[in-house]
Write a structure and sequence with these properties.
391 residues, alpha+beta, 9-stranded mixed beta sheet, 12 helices, elongated
């Protein structure tokens, strides 16, 4: 007689996704609703729908039948939101709540990545010129709203744990110091820091050295000769490199130079050089291993591209609303990582798993969108005269 087999039915419903998202936002974003019939849930529903559909608040309200008007919702939202510093604290509390309790219980150290997210901005500052930073041309502008983020890697999954609004003129060293302080406040132990080449400077290295942290960051290559290009000869090796900055003076760091061959990948057959400033790596590590080690960061960088897939669009000049929309996008991304981890977690005695299991960020966004559409319905289009194509 055959033994009965039990099946795993880990069915994820759209209402569960919406409830999980609302609980995180509602608990950490206390909105002061005054002189209005709108509720905090109404605002969260409209903002979440705009995020997953990549719409503006006005367009989201027009698509949902029972939604309030876009103008009224924005008026209530602006009046209910705190200042920029308060909004930043609330967004970071959302990230903290999304972290699994095992992050604090385990004794392991985490690899972290620090990066800047720059969103193009066309217009004048809202209140202060420091709200807008300058950068390389992108999307027809050199003006941006900039945000610094720090992510951790746990079980090959990346979580955004802190976000900071960047003002014009802020030093990179101060940004790094603030993010590391935030991680220590969360009692997250740091194993190694991966930084973008924009952080490659003497003040940043000093901050990392003060905290006795191991780091890997690429050395930017500028110009057609001289500088770090003088190291691009011979074979891959470990060496040292001295920065000559007119502002910060000379500073010598340990460097690793790596020569990689394309071997026909992407229709390329040439070699390419990479240079990294490193500290705290094992003594016997090979240059090729340093290259592979830094490649872990690209998995973390993908979170910034995925964030834009669930970020609401806006033309407002208000930096508080823009900060909120970016924060909600990262909250959705963290929710996706958590749900995916729970669905794919291995059991000690695995039962019969579903044959078709996959969950993408876009699919999670559609589940959230469908839940809101069931609550508020979608707006019908009224035809003033018959359309031949639709007959």
């Amino acid at each position: 007689m055959s033994k009965p087999t039990s099946k795993i039915t880990r069915t994820m419903r759209s209402e569960q996704v919406l409830k999980a998202f609302v609980e995180v936002v509602r608990k950490n974003l206390p909105l002061e609703m005054k002189n209005t019939r709108l509720t905090a849930e109404d605002l969260i529903y409209a903002l979440s729908y705009a995020s997953v559909q990549r719409l503006s608040i006005e367009a989201a309200c027009q698509e949902l039948q029972e939604a309030p008007s876009g103008n009224r919702l924005r008026e209530v939202l602006v009046a209910a939101l705190p200042d920029r510093a308060g909004m930043q604290r609330m967004v970071n509390r959302m990230f903290r709540q999304q972290l699994h309790p095992s992050v604090w219980k385990c004794k392991r150290d985490f690899n972290i990545a620090i990066d800047l997210t720059m969103i193009p901005y066309h217009g004048q500052p809202y209140e202060d010129k420091k709200e807008i930073v300058r950068g390389m041309p992108k999307s027809g502008t050199t003006h941006f709203h900039s945000y610094a983020t720090v992510s951790i890697v746990r079980d090959e999954r990346r979580y955004v744990v802190a976000l900071r609004f960047i003002e014009y003129g802020e030093e990179m060293a101060e940004i790094v110091r603030w993010l590391i302080k935030r991680l220590k406040a969360l009692k997250i132990r740091i194993r190694r820091v991966f930084l973008d080449k924009g952080f490659c400077s003497k003040p940043v290295f000093k901050v990392l050295s003060q905290h006795k942290l191991s780091y890997v960051t690429p050395i930017p290559v500028r110009g057609k000769s001289g500088g770090v290009r003088s190291l691009f000869q011979g074979k891959s090796r470990k060496t040292s490199y001295t920065f000559n900055s007119p502002k910060h003076g000379q500073y010598t760091v340990q460097a690793v130079v790596v020569k990689r061959y394309s071997k026909g990948r992407y229709a390329r057959h040439k070699s390419k050089w990479f240079a990294y400033a490193v500290t705290g790596l094992p003594a016997g590590i090979l240059p090729a291993h340093v290259f592979e080690l830094y490649r872990q960061r690209f998995g973390i960088e993908s979170s910034y591209r995925q964030m834009n897939q669930v970020r609401a669009r806006t033309s407002t000049r208000n930096p508080v609303i823009r900060l909120l929309l970016v924060g909600l996008a990262f909250v959705l991304f963290n929710l996706y990582i958590s749900v995916r981890q729970n669905l794919s977690s291995a059991l000690k005695q695995p039962l019969q798993l579903p044959k078709r299991f996959w969950l993408s960020l876009r699919r999670l966004a559609l589940l959230l969108s469908h839940a809101i559409e069931r609550l508020w319905g979608t707006t019908e289009i009224i035809q003033h005269q018959p359309c031949f194509a639709l007959s």
